[in-house]
Design a protein that fits this description.
The chain is mainly beta. It is 14% helix and 35% strand. Strands 2-5-6-9-1-10 form a six-stranded antiparallel sheet, covered by helices on one side. Strands 3-4 form a two-stranded antiparallel ribbon. A two-stranded antiparallel ribbon has the order 7-8.
Amino acid sequence: MMAIHKITDDFYEDAFTLLALHSSMEDYAMVYALNLCLKSNFKRSAKDLDLSEHISFPIFEWRDQQNDSYWTLISNKSSQEENVVGSNLFANEPSYTKYHLVPEFRDADYLLKIEHDDDNLEERTVKQLQTIPKIITAYILEVDNLKSKNNLIF
């Protein structure tokens, strides 16, 4: 008889903070603003987060060696172009379908995931982010209550 090993939720530890950012900036402009404000060095990851064949989210990451933390900025929204075929008024016009990485927070434009050990880092970061003029608001999300937190494991 062969033993079956399963990984339980107790084995995997969610040791990260998740911040929601509301802004109309494009992702490259958001990264530029974060690098200026936080004195960070976010860079585009070589691979995007692919949830399916047509749904992908760009990832920007930064490893802070000095404070032993790993930061990831990811867009919460992705759109896919679909062509509508038909004989109505909008025939042969493209249609766009929006997808969200964390559907529980559809209004959040970006998610900032921080893997760290510092307890005061979240509040300091939120205060710094709120000083950026193009960021409407920033706040901490409760990761334990998210139904789609498996989308954040990458």
